[in-house]
Amino acid sequence: GGSLTMSISSEMLKNMHAEAEKVWVPELAEVMKVTADPFINVIYDCDPLPKLQWDNVVLVGDAAHPTSPHGLRSTNMSIVDAGTLGQCIGKYGISNLSTALKEYEKYRLPVVSQQVLHSRKLGRLKQGLDYKGHGRNLHWKDASREDCLGLLQRNMPFFAGAPSPADSEALPLMMT
After folding, report:
1. Residues 66-78: pLDDT tens digits?
2. How many Å apart are CA 140 and CA 145, to the nearest integer?
């Protein structure tokens, strides 16, 4: 069908349990064994979007930044999208909506693009896959201190805050 979530076969379950015993701590392997109905949820990864705005149409939230769940930032990114959009519309008004939306894109596109790519990197590292520029597969048993620190959430680009129109012009967040 059209779902990317699927049940697993008994053979897949057997292989998953065997692999879990080799890779994970015993407690996690046991949790996997006692899970009644395990499933596979396919994660589709896409490149950052080339733009967020077309005429009087703008993308916000998950539509604006197709990030994988590895970065744990989707909701936060959406909230910042809404705040930035409100600031831009507040600055230019509805009569200059196109200008406001272009400014929204100017602030948000570079930020969300970097966050999407960082989330991809986290996903590949957490799954033990190679990623461009890394040059090797990362397995938790072989991970260096630097590898582990790279997985911390605080290393997400703009984790502590992203630029906004309020930074340069002290525009209060418009709440309507």
Report:
1. 888 888 888 999 9
2. 11
